[in-house]
Amino acid sequence: MQIKDITNILETWAPLSLQESYDNCGLLVGSPELEITSALICLDITEEVIEEAIEQQCQLIIAHHPVIFGSLKRLNGVNMTERIVMKAIKHDIALYAIHTNLDNIYSGVNARICEQIGIKNPEILEVKGGLLQKLVTYCPDTLMANGKPVFHAVMEALWEAGAGHIGNYDQCSFYEDGTGTFRPAAGSTPYIGSEGELSVQKEVRLEVIFPVYLQKKVIRQLLEVHPYEEVAYDIIALENDLQTTGAGMIGDLENEMDEMEFLLHLKKTMQTQCVRYSPIRNRKIKKVAVCGGSGSFLLKNAIARRADVLVTGDFKYHQFFDAEGKIVIADIGHYESEQFTIGLIFDKVKEKLPNFALLKSRVNTNPVNYI
CA 128 to CA 333: how far, in whole Å? Predict the structure, then answer.
């Protein structure tokens, strides 16, 4: 097993291109070709977690939070980050972070929170735009040896690469008949037509959409399956939102609850010692918005979507006033909101590599304590 065998699984699930601009996800320390026999999963990489990895003989640590977040200009061991990196290098331990890219996918951090609380049919709270592209290509209107139209084979190959998904629908495409012209130059080996002669052919214009992070895979599939020696295609950027990608989630409880009943339910299910909340409104809780980590930036979105409560962490004192009686803010703590991410990552890797030695860190890295 090499590190890249695991990181390919993680990055297919949560593409690095989905991380926020300020973030630093991916393989931070170590070579993708490093041979490994086991990995340790944690929320934060601390010096204690490095010691745990050494003790457990793990050559890879997969963390939610990047240990290298800002600039790292020298390694002198004068702060925790430098000491962690130095010790990891000394003991041949690779460090990997899967942070806001895991926050922004539909099956990521917020989906696990919804599962813990019991939220049904969750949707993305703040959908990301600018992540969709359209592929337009042209196929000969001919049949293959198996009697299948060429454009059908190309279309199916593009679907297999992940193109053609719109919301809860897949295998979406558009095609229409047209006419194409070309003249094969000297040295060419045309699928249709003859060298040096103008060819006028019936063709099919085929269109599919796909997320930007699948572009290389989609184009590779197109070029492998398309019969033309030179394949004509266009990539068009779209402004449409990608409904399955973005920040936070929102959904409904199976049964509505009184506000205090819900807050106690939240404290229990999210295993937190403290819930800080804005004034209750003496209304029922049915629609719940969530965001792992620091989610105060989503308050307006939650209010606009008519959520009864926003569950997240890191709300500042004055921000609680922004509820204005329109919603209940329930701050359960940053660590507490993301603690189940360890199990989320564990389950995904185990699903793909059931026989690989994978461990959950036993170190509680929460820097906040309560009395």
Answer: 25
